[in-house]
Amino acid sequence: MKGDLTEGFQRGTVSFARRDDRLRPRLQRTWDAHHEMWVLDVPRVQASMSVAPGYLLDAGRDFGRVAPLVVEIGSGTGDAVIQGAQARPGTNFLAVEVYRPGLAATVAKIVRHDLSNVRLVQADAVQVLRHMLGRGSAAEIWVFFADPWHKNRHHKRRLVNSGFADLAASRLAQGGTLRLATDWADYARQMRDVLAACGSLTNPHGSDLTPCGPAESTVADMQSGFAPRFEGRVMTRFEHKALEVGRTVYDLELRRA
Ligand SMILES: C[S@@+](CC[C@H](N)C(=O)[O-])C[C@H]1O[C@@H](n2cnc3c(N)ncnc32)[C@H](O)[C@@H]1O
Predict the structure, then answer these.
(1) 97 in ligand 1 pocket by Cβ < 6 Å?
(2) From the CA of 66, how far away is ligand 1's center (Å)?
(3) Do residues 104 and 35 lie in contact, with contact meaning Cβ atoms separated by under 8 Å?
(4) Is the CB of 78 within 6 Å of ligand 1?
(5) Best substitution site from 18, 97, 191 to test ligand 1's pocket, by max atoms within 8 Å of Cβ?
(6) Protein residue closest via CA to atom 1 of ligand 1
(7) Quick one: how far is CA 61 from the chain centroid?
(8) Where are the beta strands (DSSP E) in 123-219?
(9) pLDDT of residue 12
(10) Is 62 helix (H, G, I), strand (E, B) or coil?
(11) Is 73 helix (H, G, I), strand (E, B) or coil?
């Protein structure tokens, strides 16, 4: 697995880094016992994080029921998706993550909380959006604390760009919501601006300033377009760390027009 994370994506640029995929013994046991139940067995082409074109999520087959769908991209260890699934039992949640230890931690939480409305997929989110999700199939898409790739030469690896905006918008149902959060001001600005340029998304917070964190870290340009903190967004390790070192956290909320 480790060797071919990026291999095959037409030598293209992906937003994730190669990381150690090994599991600690306890997580390995959880994974072995439960992953087949919760992690979708996705057909691949070329690379281990790909999704074969033509493979479409089927709510009846994959969740055992048809219900509104929330997709979390880069779900990490699953804190947000688990909280969402607990709070909204009538909604299906799909967690998309490339990092197996994160997926295993999420599986452990599904089992601990006895949830039935979460499924996981280990794949590149762009591939999942492009091939697995039908047009207009998601009620919400969440992207919380996407890797910032903060060096200039790495900006091209950022997940949220204009191509992503169009793709995500096309997978949202009419009136569906795209929610994002980041603690990197320049990535927040990039997200806000590429999403504003996407013709099929509207920003209901065009002139609000409601980032949470110290006011002195905001600048004039950062005074519009951001949303209040999404109350369904649980405080994760990433947000804790960001607030501890005095960074501002920016939320964005866009609607499919
Ligand atoms: C900084 S972490 C944030 C995790 C989580 N959202 C949180 O707030 O705690 C970003 C996560 O996105 C995942 N990721 C990055 N690019 C991805 C992609 N293209 N597809 C799926 N997951 C991706 C990484 O593996 C990582 O776990």
Answers:
(1) yes
(2) 27
(3) yes
(4) no
(5) 97
(6) 147
(7) 22
(8) 138-144, 172-182, 201-202
(9) 73
(10) helix
(11) strand
Q: Tell me how far the alpha carbon of residue 231 lies from the centroid of ligand 1, in angstroms.
A: 20
Q: Which pLDDT value is given to residue 131?
A: 97
pLDDT band at 215 (very low <50, low <70, confident <90, very high): very low
Q: Which carries the bigger pLDDT value, residue 214 or residue 231?
A: 231
pLDDT for position 191: 97
Residue 130: both structure tokens together = 């492009």
Mean pLDDT of the chain: 91
How, if at all, do strands 250-256 and 138-144 pair? unpaired
Distance from Cα 206 to the centre of ligand 1, integer Å: 27
Decide if pLDDT at 6 tops 50. no
Neighbours of 187 (CB within 10 A): 22
Please tell me the predicted confidence (pLDDT) of residue 219: 57
| Ligand 1 atom, smallest distance to 125 CA | 20
Q: Which residues are catalytic?
A: 147
- Give the predicted TM-score (pTM) of the model: 0.92
Contacts of 201 (CB under 8 A, 6+ apart): 165, 169, 178, 195, 254, 255, 256, 257
